[in-house]
Structures are given as structure tokens and as C-alpha cells.
Amino acid sequence: MTGAYSGLSSFVAPAREKSELWRFAAGLVIAFAAYMAFNQLFFGTVYQIAGNRSNALYNALVAGDTPLAMFLLLSSFACMMLSVALVVRVLHRRPFRSLIGPLPLAWTDFRAVTLMLVALSLVIAILPPWDMGGDFVPNMPFGQWLVLLPLSLLGVLVQVSAEEIVFRGYVQQQLAVRFRSPLVWMIAPSVLFALGHYLPDSSCENALAIALWAGVFGVLMADLTARSGSLGPAIALHFCNNVTAILIVSLPDNLSGLALYLTPFGMQDTQMLAAWLPVDFAMMLVFWLAARVAIRR
User: Fold this and answer.
1) Is 123 exposed, middle or buried (0-12, 13-18, 19+ CB in 10 A)?
2) Tens of pLDDT along 115-171?
3) What is the torsion angle, in degrees rounded to the nearest 10, for the CA atoms of residue 134, residue 151, residue 108 and residue 5?
4) 3-state secondary structure 153-198
5) pLDDT tens digits, residue range 48-88?
6) Where do the structural domains in the chain lie, given as residue ranges?
């Protein structure tokens, strides 16, 4: 592979030896079944430990409105990594780290993109407007938020890494090694990613728009992965995005347990949410372009 996606060849190289489509299809099924089993085991153990407080914990997990619930939800994504690690080791006979790309390259690009996006975010933060149609609502005392921040950052890193390893790691690698067209190895993982974010029960009228946002996000992450030859940039951008949405300013009715502030509207405020979705799309594109600049060689 030459040109903009010259990094893709080295990224998919570990997948070449056992790249049969039947093996990939079986891998998806096994990974999903293993994820469900590991997830059930994880939360079953949590509820067992909680004892007579398990009902209250369940309600908190559904809402994601306490620090403990958020730490559990974020750490549960390790089950996703464990399931795909099982698949690549048993079915494809290659190490888990091969899903990430060359580790020195992944770290170099992760660091470059993170520094770029943090600097960009600080510039955006000092520019108007300074609200979202109303004042931000304090959610957690700053001191408590700061004490929890190291664990919070680690939790978000686990969550975004798991998603990137599955969708841009396993799925993109296995498709790219079989199909040359980006329409296959970019679009297919992104469609799966979008389907996982289609939540009409919680997102109401905006469910389709949010799923579309996730699909476009997936395409951009696939682009960064192919340019870099590693998951470093995609994990970095995904990490910065989710830190903002989960740890800094969150929707009050959607995974708000670790946020410093809450937005003045929630998921049920469909008109306000719809009005801000184009802004989210624009920010996503700006961050993607900044990440491309950061890894330009």
C-alpha cells in the first residue's frame, strides 16, 4: 500500500498468515460470545460483593451517575479486550499486541496527537461561547474530581482502547488484509461501531443522528490508523474526545458520575441536543485534521 495509507501494510502484516474469511467470521462470533460471558462474570461478581446493596448498584450502573458506577462501567471494557485477545491467540495464532501495531510507533503517535489535541482544546476553551445555551451545572467538588482524576483517566483509557482494538484493530486488520478497497476496511468496522451506538431508548429522536456521528467517527479513526500504521492516533483522539464528554462536561442523564460539570440540557431535550450535534460533528472534523497534522511525517 502506497501513498497516504502506506502505514497500512505493516499494520495488517500480522494478520496475513491466517486471514481466511471463515476464520474472521468465526472470530466475530466467538469474540461476542466471550465478551458476553466475561461481562456477565464481571458484573455477577460485582453484584455478589455488593450483597443487599446490589439493587441500588444496578440502578446506579444503568444511569452511570456515581463515581463507583462509572469506574465499574469503564473497567468492564477490559472484558472486550480479553475476548478479542482470546480470539487472536486461539483462532489466528498471533499475539494480542499485534492488534495495536508496532508499540514504539503507537506510543510516539499517541503522544503527538494527545499533545496536539490538548493544546487545541485549551485554545477552544478560552474562545467564546463559554456555555451551551445555559450555564454549566457543577456536578462534583473540584477537589474530589481532582483526587479521582488519575483513576478516571485510566478508566477512560481502558474504554477507548478496547473499542479501538476491536473495531480498528481486529476488524479493520482482518478486512484490510483481504480487501484492498478502503470502502470495505473503513466502512464495515464503522457500520458495526455505529450500530453499537444506536440507542433509541436513551437518545430518543436523536438516536439516528448519534449513530451517524459514531459511524463518521469510526471512518476517521480508520483513516488515522491506516496513515499511522498503528492504533496510537485513534486511541489518542478517542481518549481526548471521551475525557471531554465523560470527565469534564457530561450530559446529566448519560454517564455523568465522574464529570466535573453537567450540560444545561439532557438526552431528553431533543431540540437542544439536535442543535449541538452539528457542533459536535464540526469539532470531530477539526480534531481529526489536527491529529493528521500531528502524525504527518
Assistant:
1) exposed
2) 999 999 999 888 877 666 678 899 999 999 999 999 999 999 999 999 999 999 999
3) -60
4) HHHHHHHHHHHHHHHHHHHHHHHHCCCCCHHHHCHHHHHHHHHHCC
5) 999 999 999 999 999 899 999 999 999 999 999 999 999 99
6) 3-294
For residues 204 and 199, give the distance between their C-alpha atoms in angstroms, rounded to a whole number.
8
> In this structure, which long-range contacts are made by residues 270-276, counting pairs with CB atoms below 8 Å and at least 24 apart in sequence?
270/204, 270/205, 270/206, 272/133, 273/206, 274/205, 274/206, 274/209, 275/133, 276/132, 276/133
> Residue 221: which of 265, 268, 166, 266 has the closest Cα?
166
Neighbour-count burial of 109, counting CB atoms closer than 10 A to its CB (0-12 exposed, 13-18 middle, 19+ buried): buried
Q: What is the pTM of this model?
A: 0.94
